[in-house]
User: Which sequence fits this backbone?
């Protein structure tokens, strides 16, 4: 493994003090003392315990670092390095520094309406891309921007193939209680994010954490509440018949937590990991034969039932990391968004995802959060997904490999 010819550096820090100002000063001091020069970007994540004074905490850290492009938000659970803070207050931050890096914070709030109403011109005016971005981080309030339109609107405003990663926030259980900060602007709705340009490379690692069982099936009847027919038969009966044929472990897992995967590309003849958007079945209406879903599944969609348990999720994450480590350049930093329902509730102990990623990728600076849903690229397009995780790997651009495209 060689060291890339780059000056890109990330530093992460965290603090567990219950007093927000004390925690912010400690994080600021660690970042400031570890950085040789002021950073270009700053990301701050606070547990909901700090929600009332998150703006002050973000301002304290930002001002101590000469006011880089900054985004901050609240989450239920935080990660830093290999640790996951799922109990009690926590504050974590990551600074990105390098002379060839450009970063800008952006923000949307309730005055802009839902993402479906955002025009391409509006999005571009907020993102202000001055060159093809290397990546876009986005963090949305699920009560005001939690639709599939959020990542799609951002992708429409930048070039195809630009990674758009992040997640919906988990820091509140009701509208208006999440806190989002972009530079010195504060909101309780909408979305915030960072546009990254210049001498930085961004790679997405996605782990779906599920495995398909049974055949692919066409949705022949459905409405906004759920799927009533699969391949011309009552959907609940199709599920019951499949359960009767599965091995004992899969039967137990699917019966306890029924999931469906919706094919991203219904024209593909062979489908595997990454070809489905997985959704939970909220309930089974035996009388009508309907599978009630958490989002509309259009008629004509191709679906497959999926199972998930700790072993499946761990194996799927390892397969994703097998691909990431093929790049011989060590990551400079990692942003992790793991969907709710992973963590200790799935693996029996906290820190599984952050610990595994941190270890296998060479222990780079890492911060992360539990997301209501993760945002990542599926089937070549950024989408909102659940049950899995997405990690944004940051690397300095090795100019010995691409000396001529510094501003591409």
Assistant:
């Amino acid at each position: 493994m060689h060291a890339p010819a780059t000056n890109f550096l990330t530093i992460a820090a965290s603090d567990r003090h219950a007093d927000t100002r004390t925690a912010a000063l400690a994080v600021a001091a660690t970042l400031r003392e570890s950085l040789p020069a002021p950073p270009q970007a700053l990301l701050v994540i606070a547990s909901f315990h700090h929600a009332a004074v998150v703006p002050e905490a973000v301002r304290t850290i930002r001002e101590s670092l000469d006011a880089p492009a900054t985004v901050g938000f609240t989450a239920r659970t935080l990660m830093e390095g290999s640790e996951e803070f799922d109990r009690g207050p926590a504050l974590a931050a990551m600074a990105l520094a390098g002379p060839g890096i450009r970063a800008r914070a952006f923000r949307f709030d309730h005055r802009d309406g839902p993402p479906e109403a955002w025009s391409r011109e509006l999005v571009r005016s907020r993102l202000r891309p001055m060159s093809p971005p290397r990546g876009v981080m986005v963090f949305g309030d699920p009560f005001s921007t939690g639709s599939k339109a959020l990542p799609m609107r951002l992708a429409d405003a930048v070039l195809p193939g630009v990674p758009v990663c992040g997640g919906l926030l988990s820091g509140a259980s009701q509208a208006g209680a999440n806190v989002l900060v972009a530079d010195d602007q504060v909101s309780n709705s909408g979305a915030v994010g960072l546009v990254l340009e210049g001498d930085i490379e961004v790679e997405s690692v996605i782990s779906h954490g599920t495995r398909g069982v049974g055949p692919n099936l066409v949705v022949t009847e459905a409405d906004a509440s759920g799927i009533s027919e699969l391949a011309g038969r009552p959907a609940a009966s199709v599920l019951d018949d499949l359960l009767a044929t599965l091995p004992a472990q899969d039967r137990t897992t699917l019966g306890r937590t029924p999931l469906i995967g919706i094919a991203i590309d219904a024209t593909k003849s062979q489908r595997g990991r990454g070809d489905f958007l997985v959704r939970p079945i909220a309930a089974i209406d035996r009388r009508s034969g309907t599978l009630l879903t958490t989002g509309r599944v259009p008629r004509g969609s191709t679906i497959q039932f999926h199972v998930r348990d700790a072993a499946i999720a761990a194996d799927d994450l390892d397969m994703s990391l097998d691909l990431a480590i093929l790049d011989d350049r060590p990551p400079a930093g990692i942003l992790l968004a793991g969907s709710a329902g992973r963590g200790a509730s799935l693996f029996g102990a906290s820190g599984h995802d952050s610990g595994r990623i941190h270890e296998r990728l060479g222990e780079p600076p890492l911060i992360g959060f539990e997301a209501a849903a993760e945002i990542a690229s599926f089937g070549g397009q950024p989408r909102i997904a659940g049950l899995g995780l997405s990690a944004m790997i940051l690397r300095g651009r090795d100019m010995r490999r691409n000396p001529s495209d510094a501003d591409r």
In short: The first strand starts at residue 9 and ends at 15.
